[in-house]
Amino acid sequence: MIANWGLIWPAMTAAFLASLVEAVEALTIVLAVATVRGWRPAGLGALAGLLVLALTVVALGPLLDHVPLHLLQLVIGVLLLLFGMRWLRKAILRAAGVIPLHDEALTFAAETEELREQARRNEARLDWLAAITTFKAVLLEGLEVVFIVIALGSGRGMLIPASVGAVVACLAVAAVGLIVHRPLARVPENTLKFAVGIMLSAFGVFWTGEGLGVAWPGGDLAIVGFAAMFLAVSGAAVLLTRRPKAELLS
Amino acid sequence: MTVLTNALRELAGLFIDDGALALVIIAVVVLTGVVATLLPEVPLVAGGILLFGCLAALLSSVATAN
């Protein structure tokens, strides 16, 4: 039971934090479209995206039961390594000032400007284009959430805790977004990506090893040790690559 | 066709940002698999290659980008 909780909490927390980031990014696009063209095309596109996402999960989800466990662990583990280390690398470079931080307010401004430009070029098709924009944003960010839930949950029957974490995050972002009607620029996105990148990479090493027949010392709790090592190496990487402020300003 | 290509490109982009990092990760996993097959009685050697290989790949990728 202790080992189970040792896996449930990291899986649920990682799914919650990762989904928070993805939901905030999707919300920014939906709000931008709603600001320029109104809630009707924005909402219809987002709902269509959610519908396609749900159909994809319903259609492909049961197939997971037919994949041998070791193969599933290996494939999911490798995908988690690719996905998690990609996030972690970017978060390290952003924390070190090598690349600029992701700014939801800037993304919102760029998206609204692009939609206004499209309006000037082709007014008649704009509602359609606006709906496609939110459809694509919700579908792509949603696919990332689904992948994270499957990746964190399928290896040891943790799909329910991971799904709960993801659903709570998405509902929370949607609720806050509907109330404040602004992009959630204050969410510390890079810190979240840093933390999630560490957790996904740790899960990736664990599942890949299990898939290849490695019996990790400590069982599931080895994930915590891997996360600590990724944290230490990532922290060191930030310190080693940090750009001086004067250089950043210039 | 373009829509499908774009969709596939965006899907691939979820996993691959820095191509070199992705290649090194795959190489580490393949090496781990080879070692796990050749030395099944000491699986921790393969585990160590996987863990430290990934950490080294991350450091190397960040250093290169810098």
Q: Can you walk through the features of this model?
A:
Chain A is built from 9 helices and no strands. Chain A has helices at 2-37, 39-60, 69-95, 104-121, 126-153, 159-180, 189-211, 222-241, 245-249. In chain A, helix 1 crosses helix 7 (189-211), helix 3 runs parallel beside helix 8 (222-241) and helix 7 packs across helix 8. Chain B is built from 3 helices and no strands. The N and C termini of chain B lie far apart (37 Å).
Summarize the structure.
The complex is a heterodimer of chains A (250) and B (66). Helix content of chain A is 80%, strand content 0%.
Q: What's the order of the H and E elements of chain B?
A: HHH
Number of strands of chain A: 0
Number of domains of chain A: 1
Structural class category of chain A = mainly alpha
SS summary, helix count of chain B = 3
User: What is the mean predicted local confidence, pLDDT of chain A?
Assistant: 84
The fraction of residues assigned to DSSP E strands of chain B is: under 5%
Low-confidence stretches of chain A: none
Q: What is the H/E string of chain A?
A: HHHHHHHHH
Structural class of chain B: mainly alpha
Mean pLDDT of chain B: 86
How big is the Rg of chain B? Answer: 16 Å
Helical region count of chain A? 9
- Principal-axis shape of chain B equals flat
